[in-house]
Amino acid sequence: MTVRKTWVVVTAVAGVGLAFTSALVVGVYMVAGNLANGVGGGSVGLATGAVPAAYQTLVQKWGNLCGAINPALLAAQLYQESGFNPNAKSPAAAEGIAQFIPGTWATHGIDGNGDGKRDVWDPNDAIPSAASYDCKLASYVKDAPGNLTENMLAAYNAGAYAVIKYGGVPPYKETQNYVKTITTLAKSFARPVSRVDPSQQAAAAIYYAQKKLGTPYLWGGNGTADQGGRFDCSGLTKAAYESVGVTLPRVANDQYNAGPHPARSELLPGDLVFFSDDLTNSRAIRHVGIYVGGGYMIDAPRTGAVIRFDPIDTPDYFGATRVTEDGAKALPTTV
Questions:
Q1: Mean pLDDT score of the chain, rounded to an integer?
Q2: Which residues pair with 297 in a beta bridge?
Q3: Is the pLDDT score of 2 beyond 60?
């Protein structure tokens, strides 16, 4: 990655480390208290770059097909199913970006681009078909008590009959988890419309990362003893949040979906900050650090460098994520 200018030398940081962290902890928790009653909402708009540019227009258009869905929810489903991979195929023979099984595609696949054929491998057909299928399920359960979107997702997982039978989301753990997963994951694809709530785990994650300042970089490093306690960028952020009980995915582009996305002007210490050579596609993210305030992050930059403070305002700055425990749990284990 691009060499970034070091903020302060590691020896100086070591001397003021405890004071810096103590002030940071107080600051983060004061902000958390001041904003505890705020609303961290989302809208049907998509967060910048969260959906690959090739599919963003499709998701935005078809995500508004009916009232039970929105673009962020549709994006969450596609990410959960395939990681936006149009060539994905599961061991259960689910196919394409929306992972339709052949029988479901035969019944619910549509010709989304009007070229005269229904192609499960073509996102121009598969994405509209996913939205259409969601809306069809919603129509089946529209009279069931409860939230229509949650009932639609439950019907997707357990069948419309189960939703009707139980008068809402059925008491199946798998189905309840699926509903929570998709609705939570949708928050990471939505463009926030108000300030995102702060995380009270942020200060401890920063404290962990700060203790690693000066540690040499290792590609693929997870900080294990056999690796000499060394990290790469996403290994460091994963370990920092794991130290406070939040399990993140291993790679940076998946960590981006672990929570909502504050604007640059709304960053708080503990937010993950991301960098990419393609600012239109979160799947192309190649670097991550932990924001500490003042326009700086702690990161593991590259081979030959050490974990250090670096500025975030560079041309390759992609965006930020405010990690939440539920957001991290909602991420698929493989995409």
A1: 86
A2: 291, 310
A3: no
